[in-house]
Amino acid sequence: MRKVMNKMNMNWMILALLAVTMTAVAQQSASAPQNPQPVAATQPDQTASQPSQTQSGQAQANLAPPTTMDQVVDRVIVEEKELIKFLSPRTPIVETYLQNLTQDPQLGPIPQDDHYFLGRMDLSQSIDRSDFLKGKDDGMEKHLLGEFTKKFKFQYQPLGFSWMIFADRTDFDRQHYNFHYVRREFLGDVRCLVFDLTPTKDAGRGRFLGRIWVEDQNFNIVRLNGTYAHPSRNSYYFHMDSWRLNLVPGYWVPSYIYSEEGDFTAGAKNKIAFKAQTRMWGYNLKTATANDELTNIRVDSVKDSTPTAQDATPLAAEREWQQQAEDNVVERLERAGLLAPAGDVDKILQTVVNNLEITNNIDLPRPVRTRVLTTSPLETFSVGNTIVVSRGLIDVLPDEGSLAMVLSHELAHIVLGHNLGSQYAFNDRMLFSDEVTYQNLGFKHIPEEETAADKKAIEMLKASPYAQKLDSAGLFIKALQARAPQLSALLQAHLGNNITENGMVTRMAALATSAPALDWNKLDQIAALPLGARVKLNPWDDKVEIVKAQPVAITSARDKMPFEVTPFYPRLTRYSTASAPASSTTAALPTAATTADASPTPTN
Ligand SMILES: [Zn+2]
Description:
There is one protein chain. This protein is of the alpha+beta class. Helix content is 25%, strand content 20%. A 10-stranded antiparallel sheet has the order 3-2-1-10-9-8-7-6-5-4, with helices on one face. It is globular, with a radius of gyration of 25 Å. The two termini are 35 Å apart. The structure holds zinc ion.
């Protein structure tokens, strides 16, 4: 095995350091007059806003570049309305993962319990809600969301977390808002104009209060940060930091929202303390209609590749049947936005699977494929010869050894012939709406098969290049065990077997016994990473890629944040038709851990 020296990011640490304050805006008078400031006539970048260069949407093509700040604000309002119109027929998937916090004297705020929401958002406000998960957390939703639910209709509950995809869906204009220009600022590669927004005196309740960043070529909002004013009694608006990405020409698509509440200063009396990440994806999924459901299902997925013109033998027929089931499931999950299209992350996973296979002389009639589930909960399953691992699980794995541990369990199921899912070779079983995917598909093994797979997996690991790296895999299990009682939502598998049972890690638990002692205070011991540390999901086309960022040194135990939620801080770039630079797909999962000793931070 080639050693991977290219150390992986600790981008979550950057995130933690760049905490954004949002109190400044409160000092501004709500009745302050609009504050137009002229744009300097000598702007060197005026040519940059020519439509021919940006290939932007139609709305922007006919507009002259604004020459005053007043005109800029007008453009911002026009572009925001254009975005609302552009997105109105779409029903992206919305996932919110929330951790309630408690104060640990050593580690700071750590998770106390957690909640998970997955659904589809209706951006046209015309269809009923549709959750993927049934009957969960209604109480908390009412407790936290107050009056959001009365005013706005989304398919997704709790919509509060996704509310700040727009500043104000209905009344984003000068009658309701004062725009106060603050300064220019770069977010990533994108130069932005920064405005503070305050509701006008008579704007009414529930208006955005905070800051917006507007890119300075087409004047789209790329980030919103703030809250809503003014809550009525018994209701609560939490604070949000909302990011958009330029994933299609001319539009910046709402992608990530971070929410956080809580005050852990001495003597503070906070009622709620939580951190929550909301991710949106699946914007470009075809909205399925009853007709699509029927026409999209193809029965020709099994291609006759045998040169002979003979009928299949019974065993060959059995294998073809299993592959048909596998293809059906993969296609159906992808269409529901729950499975990322095949891509570079799969190649990394496949490298590890190949390493396990070669060193164990495993020769399967069909190659094992790997795919990434787009969701956060930590789970894996396999169907036919396809191993599926969730984005969240890849995120938190500290190194390649622990990834090998995860994959070896599913590979063992395949090697042992624990085949599940042949019923899905019948295409009628694929005819359901996306929202009931979890009710219609399932790949849970019986306990005996789980035990047998663990045993076989450990056997394979010990014969593989990962034999020397099982300490870190064992440490990961110990870290998971330490947090499992507080993370029941993150550990609730929706398609495969749970990794834990009643708060105890069961999957591959034997590896923990030989691992070193878990010590949160040991800075060079990175047992598990925060969510979002590894995998980046493209909200438009659902493709996944490995996060590339410079490692950031860990300086205290609080920097580790295993399995935790952090703010988002994407590096913004403008849409480009040029394909991204080829990533190093030959390398397997890079090492994420770095410590102050091992890797000093750059001084600039
Ligand atoms: Zn299993």
